[in-house]
Amino acid sequence: MSDAASDIPETVATYLRVRGLKPSSKSWKRKRRIRDDDDNAPFTPGRDPGVLGAVLDKLSRDSGWEITLAREDLVRQWADLAGSDTAKHSEPVSLENGMLTVKCDSTAWAKNLQFMRATILTEIGRRYPQAGVNNLRFIGPDVPSWKWGPRAVPGRGPRDTYG
Predict the structure, then answer these.
(1) What single DSSP character describes residue 35?
(2) Coil, strand, or helix at residue 161?
(3) Which residues lie within the region annotated Disordered (predicted)?
């Protein structure tokens, strides 16, 4: 064997012999790629681990999740916002176009919360400014519905029930 053939790894030389090729004089040693990567160099600025809260805040801001997360927090923490007694008798049901709709157990609770509207709206704006709540609507319990199933007949329902 020549000097060029002795530099070739045995597996490559065997492969070339099987294929019927002569090993070239090219050196088969892998060259190590040297590159300057400042982002991965040790002891450079920005290499220290960040605080988890700051990382999650940046992720939610970059992903556009701030509004959705603020709305979820508002619904989840309704008891802290409105008070525990009020939260027992009311719950937020929808938030569309800046209008937060709160369903109450009775019309009396809806009317009392209507009087507290400014206070609750101010507190929502202070705690959850990203939620985008501009107005509040309090509704009482719904009237019963007789429309059950796919074959509901149009109309106001049975008339002899309350008479």
Answers:
(1) -
(2) coil
(3) 27-46
**pLDDT value, residue 78:** 93
- Pair 130, 67: CB distance under 8 Å: yes
Mean pLDDT of 73-84: 92
pTM: predicted TM-score of the whole model, two decimal places: 0.57
Tell me the percentage of the chain whose pLDDT exceeds 90.
37
Please tell me the distance from the alpha carbon of residue 109 to that of residue 105, in angstroms, as a whole number.
7
For residue 158, give both structure tokens: 């049975």
Pairing verdict, β 99-104 and 135-139: parallel
Residue 48 pLDDT > 60, yes or no? yes
Instruction: Please check the confidence at residue 159 and state whether its pLDDT lies above 70.
Output: no
Burial class (CB in 10 A: 0-12, 13-18, 19+), 128: buried
